[in-house]
Amino acid sequence: MAEKENFDLLDPFSTIDLDVASYADGVKSWAIGNREYVQPIKAFFNELIVGIESGLHAVPPVIMLVLLGLIAWQAAGRRVAVLVVVSMTVLGLLAPNAWGLAMTTLAIVISAVILCVLIGLPLGILAGKSNGFETSMRPVLDTMQTIPAFVYLVPVVMLIGIGNVSGVIVTIVFALPPLVRLTSLGIRGVNPSVVEAATAFGASPRQILWKVELPLATPTILAGVNQTIMLSLSMVVIASMISVKGFGNEVLRAMGRLDAGKALVGGLGIVILAIVLDRITQGLGKSGRERGHRHWWQGGPIGVSLRLIKRATSKATKLDLTEERTTP
Amino acid sequence: MSSNPDEPVIECRSLWKVFGAKAEEAMQAIQNEGLGKLEVRDRFNCVVGVQDASFSIAEGEIFCIMGLSGSGKSTLIRHVNRLIEPTAGEIVIAGEDINKLPARALRQLRAEKIGMVFQNMALMPHRTVRDNVVFSLEVRGVDEATRNHVASRAIDAVDLNGWDTKYPDELSGGMQQRVGLARAIAADPSILLMDEPFSALDPLIRRQLQDKFMALSAEMNKTTLFITHDLDEAIRIGDRIAIMKDGILVQVGTPEEIVTAPVDDYVADFVAGISKLDLISAGKIMEPVQSFESRNGPIDPSGWPIAHPDENLNQLVDISIDTNHPIIVTDQGRTVGIVTKQALLRGIQGRVDAGEMTHG
Known about the structure:
The complex is a heterodimer of chains A (328) and B (360).
Chain A: H1 2-6, H2 20-33, H3 35-58, H4 61-76, H5 78-94, H6 98-129, H7 131-146, H8 149-160, H9 164-188, H10 192-200, H11 205-234, H12 236-240, H13 247-256, H14 260-284, H15 300-326
Chain B: E1 10-19, H1 23-33, H2 37-44, E2 47-57, E3 62-67, H3 73-80, E4 88-93, E5 96-97, H4 103-112, E6 114-117, H5 129-133, H6 135-139, H7 144-157, H8 173-186, E7 191-195, H9 203-220, E8 223-228, H10 231-237, E9 240-245, E10 248-253, H11 255-260, H12 265-272, H13 282-285, H14 289-296, E11 306-307, H15 313-320, E12 327-331, E13 334-339, H16 341-349, H17 353-356
Parallel strand pairs in B: 3-8, 3-9, 6-7, 7-8, 11-12
Antiparallel strand pairs in B: 1-2, 1-4, 4-5, 9-10, 12-13
Helix pairs in contact in B: 7-8
């Protein structure tokens, strides 16, 4: 009853203790108690991340450089391809181990982005279709974007343990919201009269989604993917606190030793990776009209090689024809 | 489905549409207490879009609904393929109440039986002209070879050969609407819904497309519901016209009936500026021979110009331009009436009092 005596109407909060913190601590002990149930799931995701990482490490840097250049050319054009190749060369020259660190970081980012798309796209479509779902999602997304990562770092580690999987989960929490928001925005932004026309010509809701809404929302959705990639990269330092390797770990260790040079290498590495990924994904997000209504396979290295093959085969058939004509 | 040729293809029976959260209650109040539009707005915060609309359209007929913006005509046309659900009343297409159709049957009806053209074209910007045109076939799962065949026929019908792999934004407005028309006729539906299809186009292109549409419509014998805010267009195209105002069909009739016998001042105002030359026939303005003779004595028809009762004012002017005599109107060799100069001039003004006594 001591509480009641000291209760002050003007300052009620100091005397009331709902003990939220200990409930939350209960979540932590629950997480520890249930560790074994999540282990198979963890193993699966770990497999995925390790697979991507070892794949990226297996490719010799020069070949990877060429591949990245070709991907950039296909996705965003020649200028971006040059920029990407130059940037990645600079990154490689930063330090002898920089390339390896970059591939590790890239593997984490790629895993996080793949999972973000798998989770975020359906959520975004639902949010775009249903006002109620959008309203209920909004506070969740706000929380995910603003809550300090350290708050959920501990429960995640308790449940799953340190390592790449936890790192990817922590990254997803922070990087998912823009994809959900922009997918919803893209679906809502589709011209309603086009949807009406599709309905009038007998399309089912599913056909409208796949044949009308998603294609028209693609540029906005890809802008969301771009934002997700950027945010994933900005999480690598925090993720390194739970033993994720790569540039983030480099920065963290340098900070501990006050090693400004090493921190700069790690920081620059992250920035260069960010620029490269940003330019490539921005190129993807151009609408059909901006690309002059060419299909993606009609431009870039694939377009060039397709044209070369076509020319070669047509030349060959022409030769055949002339041979036939000359030999009666 | 439609075995009886006299059965209307589209029938709209006392259709009501009330927009708003409390539409059902408002509808009850309208039916029980006879509330007006404004009372519904104030009491239920609902808007009455369509008010007790009834009409039927016969096979092959072009039925125009004419009204100013906000009169509810676009709302009304969207009930015919159930893009909008009515609050009360029913739409019957070929004997079937479409508001009772399950979703799958409704989609089939839309894809196979009803083609629609929109004022803002509503083409899909990410699809080529060809893929736009055969969209209704694609959603039905028709194979690509058939689709290409149908597409080229429809594109051919609207004179857009060679544009089939272009995208809508590479085409002019008039061409885009021709794609819209091709899309509507591609599946060879029996019904066409035209929602102000030519309103957004400039006058010359509009006239070209009207001609194109009338030629196609006559050739393919489509039952058409045509929405417009342009009375000239309605008169040019429609077999019958309905004038719509504030959600109510004020008058339904042939162009001639609308122009010569407007039911109220609103319709009269509309038709005031319309040229009657092609709409009023000799039969409407002629007077009986006896009444002419009672004023002017026995007639001596030698040398008088002769016309048929169906000939319009334009033709009557041509006939009588070189003479001062009245026109004799004969039907199958029998003299049925006389059109005086005065009656002709009054007829051009749109006043048909002279013939009214005998006609009808």
